Amino acid sequence: MIAKTDEFPVGARKIVRVGGREIGVFHTSAGLFAVRNSCPHQAAPLCLGVVTGTTLPSMPGEYVWGMEGQVLRCPWHGWEFDLQTGAGLYDPDKHERVAIYEVKIDNGEVVLLA
Q1: What percentage of the chain's residues is helix, strand, coil (to nearest 5)?
Q2: Between the CA of residue 77 and those of 43, 44, 54, 73, 104, what are the distances in Å?
Q3: Which residue positions in the chain have pLDDT lower than 70?
């Protein structure tokens, strides 16, 4: 168990150790997410980064904001990851990703299935 649901509101994050791995659990406006606390770029503590949105592909000169509450930005170099899929958003052709884990609410508790 990570926390009771009433103790883990939107905006909350908690980093836990499971089986020798650090995993960050987030409750954002987009839902509950869990990712490994290590950026694939240079092993930065990824889960200390900002949870935000990002600019989406759009026409030249147009800036479309989206994915609010679903993007984790690395605190060291700003690399962005989709909290839902773990995919890196900075260079989609590289197919780099961070490990994600299932997290759910069960009987009023936030539970990590790792």
Answers
A1: 10, 50, 40
A2: 11, 9, 15, 8, 30
A3: none
